[in-house]
Amino acid sequence: MDFNFTSEQQLLQESVERFIQDEYDFDTRRKLAGSDDGFSRDNWAKFAELGWLGVSFSEDDGGFGGGPVDTMIVMEAFGKGLVTEPYLPTVVLAGGLVSRHGSDAQKADIIPRIVEGELMMAFAFAEPHGRFNLADLHTTATADGGGYVISGHKAVVYGAACAGKIIVSARTGGDVRDSDGVSLFIVDGDADGLSRRDYRTVDGLRASEVTLDNVRVGADAVLGPVGGALPLIEEAIDYGTVAVCAEAVGAMKVLHDATHEYLKTRQQFGQPIGKFQVLQHRMVDMFINYEEAKSMALMATLRVDDEPAVRAQAVSAAKVQIGKSGRFVGQESVQLHGGMGMTDELNVGSYFKRLTMIEVLFGNTDYHLNKYAAA
Amino acid sequence: MDLAFTAEERAFQEDVRSFIRDNLPDDIRHKVETGKTVEKDDYVRWQRILNGRGWLVPNWPTEYGGPGWTAAQKYIFATELGASPSPRLIPFGTSMVGPVIYTFGNAEQKAHYLPRILSSEDWWCQGYSEPGAGSDLASLKTRAVRDGDHYVVNGSKTWTTLAQYADMMFCLVRTDSEVKPQQGISFILIDMNSPGIDVRPIVTIDGGREINTVFLDDVRVPAENLIGEEGKGWTYAKFLLGHERMNIAGVPTSKRKIADIKDIARAEADGAGGALMDDMTFRRKLAETEIKLQALEYAELRMLAAESAGKAPGAEASLLKIRGTEVQQAITELTMEAVGYYANPYVAESFQAGWNEDPIGPAYAGPAAPVYFNWRKSSIYGGSNEIQRNIIAKMVLGL
Ligand SMILES: Cc1cc2nc3c(=O)[nH]c(=O)nc-3n(C[C@H](O)[C@H](O)[C@H](O)COP(=O)(O)OP(=O)(O)OC[C@H]3O[C@@H](n4cnc5c(N)ncnc54)[C@H](O)[C@@H]3O)c2cc1C
Q: What is the complex's ipTM, to 2 decimals?
């Protein structure tokens, strides 16, 4: 057993954490979140320059040959800064799909451009009425000539507005919730017939409703097996889930430390409020919740390359833990800060909101608890 | 023992119900139902409608404008009002400073302020908390120094709810720093238009604008605005806290919101071909919240019965605040969970009444997350739930 990072991983961690500390303070993040794009293209270029956009891709594909642990390192640090740049949709979700299942031509076209910071991507997997069921798809792709014609509505697609390419799940066969008949397509962000309604999200990011109205793609747009892509989608969502678990751990760490500090400095009744035993116990529970979350995020990171059943079970377990810990840590941070915790000015609320949305993302606590119990 | 209302009580209930139905303006009802921001004018209009019927201040003695209701009538009224999609009644005038004025104020103060509360001419805000004095309110530092027939007030109040609308603020100030903290506090009424007052908004985590910091810089307040005696402010403030027990738990509103969640859960898909309402996991959580709410409702009824029998409820009422806010918060969590991914889109303008674009997801989803974030406040304000537990531990359990 070895829980140590390699020396490359240590360097990676140091460089991402230093960036967050030196260049991504809360005010900077707030300004970015309020800007037109919602993030900084200069930062994106810097991510490319520092190699972070390529850590998880194989060297053959033009990446740096890292794995889930490297992604965890980046995402945990990003969680500490509440980074708004579209790393999750571009690198983890879409990039991951292409690198695992793309054709040679697709990989050659896409991965180097992601690594260089020239291409951002999004993954449009959810639909308005599907809840968390990845197979609940009304979007259809009909074979036509050599290619396909895609129509449908994809919901709450993070990062779609800046995406040069969007990976879309659609039905090429089967009924709405069938496992078979699901396919993936790589669609240009500016394809004819694709329209977006962009908006801000409560967690300070950007997402879009993406409507496809007879969007034509060639046969080369198909990613993975026609009609057999559901397992690929599940796998991509599991990788995404593991990544946001790490992000949540970073966010919880900030809340944990901020609240800890506040208990030591805020004076009421002539003493620091941290002297009240009831608050000590609450802080201890925050600490325990954070530790549990960190353990489970690591566990899932180490299992995500395993066979699908093991992977899925590990991911659901971690997501349940992160959902519960994130809610507890978020709510308690606000509560223990009293009125201050309710202000938009303090950073606490923003971390709380991101944790809240991470709980929903890729299936909420109930969904994953049921999935785990049923397996 | 009998749970049923008498025939007269039922008739009264019908009266209240039909009055609300017939008189709550449609535009206001619509705002409340769709989670739009309720503006000052909406609150005032609704208060004036209730006042027109003589129903604005159920707890006031008849000589000052109260309707002279029995405890059961007050309960029925509060229940019907909470169950209706009407704006909440702003408590600062009617439930807070009003009772202090008619209990401790002098004849001129009563004659001047009480009618203006009834007519909603004055909007009141509560100036208690300060940056350094929250749970430990007695440590407040805002000073009022007597200068001829005025007090000169310096300091700052914070978290002041809807101070941006306020004409008047009832304020705890320190008039004596030589004595024990509680004994040096006085209760004064400050005109918010006085020179030296600066109200600055504090944006809350949900993006709302309901609280403020109020800076007071050499504000001259006529000495006649002092309530009762100098140095007795703490006693009056405690009276006020103990006064408004009714409806502290918010049971009727919570019932209405649970009904709303059921509507949402019937409209939302469960991802398995049915509705979320068919999902046992969700239903069980909803059921647990409903049961908690029932326990709260019956705790409130028991306290009400004790009160009618002449036993004023004491610190037990803190349990209504604790559980009431916990249920409110659980409801906001369930609502947010019910709407799934559509909790996340945030269109700030969509909470304004004039916004008439299509919502991003279902219309009910837009407010779900902001409301959840906003209601974290309820376990903090009005004496935090930790402080309420301290009160029960000390006053009820003698620990
Ligand atoms: C939305 C909102 C509206 C408000 N409106 C008004 C208003 O209109 N007028 C007004 O005067 N005030 C208002 N308040 C202020 C409110 O009453 C205070 O926030 C509250 O009293 C807590 O004080 P604090 O914020 O200073 O927190 P603190 O007192 O600093 O408390 C921080 C944390 O420590 C805990 N704590 C403190 N002391 C103890 C103890 N002895 N034992 C255990 N735990 C303890 C608290 O429970 C809390 O969790 C409002 C607050 C909010 C959030």
A: 0.97
